[in-house]
Amino acid sequence: MSAARRILIAGNWKMNGLQADGVALASAVADKLKAAGDAAFDMLVCPPYTIIGAVAGAASGSGLAVGAQDCHIAEKGAHTGDISTAMLADAGCSFIIVGHSERRTDHGESDGDVKAKAEAVNAAGLKAVICIGETEAERDSGDTLNVVKTQIAGSVPDDATAENTVVAYEPVWAIGTGRTPTNDEVQEVHAFIRSELAAKLGQDTADGVRLLYGGSMNPGNASELLALADVDGGLIGGASLKADDFWAIAESCP
Ligand code: PGA
User: Fold this and answer.
1) C-alpha–C-alpha distance, residues 193 and 201, integer Å
2) Ligand 1 centroid vs 235 CA: distance in angstroms?
């Protein structure tokens, strides 16, 4: 973590939570954040679409940001079942996750799709959290850096800025498994991501972009991960569904 980059602790609730659960969870986190006063970190929760409005209401005035987990690239139109960035902004979102590995796998999203979504997010004045990461087979065959390089080249908009873009490195094999890379492996990939962003966007931008680690981050491993030089926060799935665990992760910021 660098002093110039504020840590971002982001919760990806995935397909979990009815209205009452989501409001209770967001309210508990919002209360802790308010009680903490001048927190040295930013916090974000990304609930399912159906409860974004209710969660945004619960988070209002606390500093807790609200985001979505995906979006469509068009502003409106004949796209049955889809949701636009303008609608998400209207519902209270300031961030949108794009290219999560579950979207890439379950919905066949390509790097090009992810880049178009990130561009749509930025065009709506919102911040994109762009997810990348290798599979276990790719890690085992020594391909991690190549995979990440291709994903950055293909998924990150060419005019991305430090203000409108966050990159989340999430090894697919670490998501929801309780397994994580070693601290050295995480730092190696994060430093590599920053150098690739520098080549693409310039050093100043790369130095300002927040790089989140995601994949089985929990209160037990967060302090070591968040202390790594190029880790500027976490994208947290399972452990973000319990206010105490999510808060404990935030409190482990260096
Ligand atoms: P996990 O999920 O923390 O449950 O591993 C992280 C993610 O998929 O964003």
Assistant:
1) 12
2) 7
Residue 176, ligand 1, Cβ within 6 A: yes
The token duo for 156 is 């990150």
What predicted TM-score, i.e. pTM, was given to this entire model?
0.98
Length of the chain: 254
Sign of the torsion angle spanned by Cα atoms 213, 218, 221, 226 = positive
From 216, 226, 242, 249, mutation site for ligand 1 pocket: most ligand atoms within 8 A of C-beta:
216
In angstroms, the Cα distances linking 234 to 148, 207, 226, 250, 253 are 18, 17, 8, 9, 10
Between CA 101 and CA 108 the distance in angstroms is 10
Q: pLDDT grade, residue 1 (50/70/90)?
A: very low
170 is catalytic: yes
pLDDT at 224 over 80: yes
For ligand 1, atom 7: residue with the closest CA: 237
Whether ligand 1 lies within 6 angstroms of the CB of 175 is answered as yes
Which helix or strand (DSSP H or E) is residue 67 part of?
strand 65-68
Q: What are 85-103's pLDDT values in tens digits?
A: 999 999 999 999 999 999 9
Ligand 1 contact, 236 CB (< 6 A): yes
| 68 CB within 6 A, ligand 1 | no
